[in-house]
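Quick one, T. Sequence first:
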Amino acid sequence: MAEHPPQDPSNAHPSKPKGMTYAEAGVDIDAGEAVVGRIKEHVQRTFGPRVIGRHGGFAGLLRLDYNEKLFKRNFREPVLVACTDGVGTKVVLATQLGRHGTIGQDLVAMNVNDMIVQGAEPLLFLDYIGIHKVDPELIATLVAGVAEGCRQGGCALLGGETAEMPDVYKPGDYDLAGFAVGVCELGKVIDGRRITPGDVIIGLTSSGIHSNGYTLVRAIVRENNLDLEATYPELESDRPLGQVLLEPTRIYVRSVLGVLNRYKVKQPVLGMAHITGGGLPGNVNRVLPSNVDARIERSAWQVPELFRFLQRRGNVAEDEMLRVFNMGIGYVMVVRPHFADSILEQLRRAGENAMVLGRITAGTGKVTFA
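Structure tokens:
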């Protein structure tokens, strides 16, 4: 009997479409796996003795505390403190300039600076990167910045996620978000309730704009055709405008916790505020009891020229500047008068530019300027 000639597999089912792949649909698994290897060194630099397990697991593990001489103290009534934040449209500026090395530090700063306001010690950090197309080199650069922020903030970069979503992000676009967990002794949680008239307001200077107000910054740059690659004499800097605008957010963890940890029994620090969106009036008021005001002396610090440069170019009202930007003050502490001089000296020794901004007065929970 004659045999049927073998069929050409490619013609066996002419109506069946070619098999589709995830990569053809827009997501490259191989690129994602390449990222894991590139970031391993950066991530492990943030690991302390509390971290358990290895890099690349499904979840990270961290021991809260245990009875070993490794740690100076054990928590009796530990309270976990958690927060999450991003860096807003500062990522747009970073993408525009092709400078991504410090945006990860901004991400960590926005979280850990919020956390220490409660008196908490940062323990761990998780990052999320949403991106049009995974670029292993870019992701490694971003994670290296996150790791540097974690190193400065004293927390472990315990895990993260990179999501390749070409249907959500345009080519070249990405976004960052972060999540931090810390711990504080219940009896030492700082919430502002003990603030009374006569207490002293201490300010710590910022490193620049930090990570709030960049939609307005970018609008000012656009409307005035400012050149991000050019230097402007008014800024009193030999760096291009773009680099000045991308100056990373200052991380206050070590300085602030250094002060808090010095006092084992007394609690001279009564309230603290991270100055982000809303500026001084929109953040200091968040820690005030309803029967006091924070009276801040405008002459107590010199507003950095960068803010005045943007104000002039954008014709921005002073009240709007104070509401949008930190105006040179990135962190505020309210302390008992008897301890003010000592705390100022401790902060200065830790590398902070700190000064008395004003006093607490009787009032209704507002921030006023003199």
